[in-house]
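Late entry, evening session. Most of the bench is empty. Finally got around to the prediction I had been postponing all week. Sequence below, unchanged from the version circulated by S.P.
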Amino acid sequence: MNDIFGLLSGQFFPLLLVNTVFLAVLLRGIFFRHSPKRNFLFGFFMFGTGVFLVTHLLQGVDISMGFAFGLFAIFAMLRYRTETISIRDMTYLFLVIVISLLNGVGPLTPEGAAFVNAVLCIIVAIGETSLFAPRVFEKRIRYENINNIRPENYHLLVADITQRTGLNVTNIEITDIDFLSDIANLQISYSETK
């Protein structure tokens, strides 16, 4: 019993506070603002809290940071491998694990952990802006003007789809052509602003 109170004293509560605050900043302030997936928000937050608690409480056991990271990475892959999860969501899961491991077993004071977490959150926030990468969206459409799908008529295809949809089309990829019904399936990429 004394061992548990020994582990919980000292840096545990300040690091738990730092971990909770920066998970909230990362997930609620950055992730949820750009992608309102409530189930992922809750799951990622609880996953990060669990990683912190287990790694901090196992800190007295002779394990390395690599072992701890591998343990939770394998767990994440086993749990989320059946769920269709985007690369962006998987990146946030990775960041949750990184923050929680740094706070749980990293050789940092609470102030140092807060600084590292703040730098990481700032980098992620900048990465989510259009300054880093312009927002490009994709849409699949069925297109009936089969003459415009020829390579020499690409500019006509872009102009026609832009005029019909009102979208700022940046790229068009022909995914499928049905010559019997004169229809092509297209994947269009477009940006937010014209």
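Two things to note before I forget:
The radius of gyration is 24 Å.
The mean pLDDT is 83.
Will write this up properly tomorrow.
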